[in-house]
Amino acid sequence: MEKQLLSPLNDYVFKRIFGDEANKQVLISLLSAILLIKIRDVSFLLQEIPRKSEDLKTAILDITAKLDDGTRIDIEMQVLFHKEYIDRILYYWADFFVFQPLRGKKHYALKKTISITILEDTDRFFPHAHSSYKLMECHGEPLHILTDKEEFHFIDIGRIEEITIVESNEKLANWMKFFKSKTREEMKTLAKQDACIGRAVSRLEHMSLDENEVYEAQQREKFLWDLEVREGLAEERGEKRGIKIGEKRGLIEAAKKLISSGMDTKTACEMMGISESDLM
């Protein structure tokens, strides 16, 4: 039986596909589809922004790159979206923006910094499938943009139809389908339509056959779902009834997610401390 493909929505898998120097044409293709600009080349940057003092959090970014015109890009995979994420991405953007070499230069030498997040926004917090933001004056027409050095993009992969119909961006729609695809047949169809997506699919195929890669992806999936279960249980503390039921449901859902990402049923159930019959 063919092994199930790993999910490109797993942030470990995402980094391995799009953050590889040898495979950077794949990242260029995705970025050009989102930003609608011609990109000749990218170079990868440090993903961890060091703390400037003990009081500050270290920012660890998914993929950071610099375009051929000097523009800096941070691209994040954030499937489990919640509104608090906005504060986090602002913190990451600010750290990434100021973490530029300026010795002997003026502040105007700071390069444009763009934050891109790929997510599934089930609560429809963002108004569009592809929502973009800049700093601008709040009153009057025409709207006045304060600076072009700050830019945020949020791509909701659950709204492919809007990208296809409203924006007529077929290239971005195909990348969104890549992230949402569940079967090899869907992946192969997309690969035939776009050579860069074909490279991404090929990389995904190889990763899905590599036991070490599968293990790392599963561990990341387990960590995220453990975190979500703990947060869900924390919200239920104080309630005298339903805590055990909520915990069990959370563990069952976490196990199902692990199974859907490629882990076998027995291992997923053992990790979550449930029986296979609980999945029925």
Helix content: 40-55%
Number of distinct helices: 10
Number of domains: 2
Give the CA-based shape: globular
Our measurement of the CA-to-CA distance between the termini, rounded to an integer number of angstroms, reads 23 Å
Task: Profile the largest sheet.
Answer: 6 strands, mixed
Mean pLDDT: 83
Query: What Rg is obtained from the alpha carbons, in whole angstroms?
Result: 20 Å
Oligomer: single chain
Order of helices and strands: HHEEEEEHEEEHHHHHHH
- Proportion of β residues? 5-15%
| Record field, number of beta strands | 8
> What structural class do the secondary elements suggest?
alpha/beta
Query: Which strands sit side by side, in order, in the main sheet?
Result: 1-4-5-6-8-7
Uncertain stretches = 52-59, 238-243
In short:
The protein has ten helices and eight strands. With 280 residues, it is α/β, with parallel strands linked by helices.
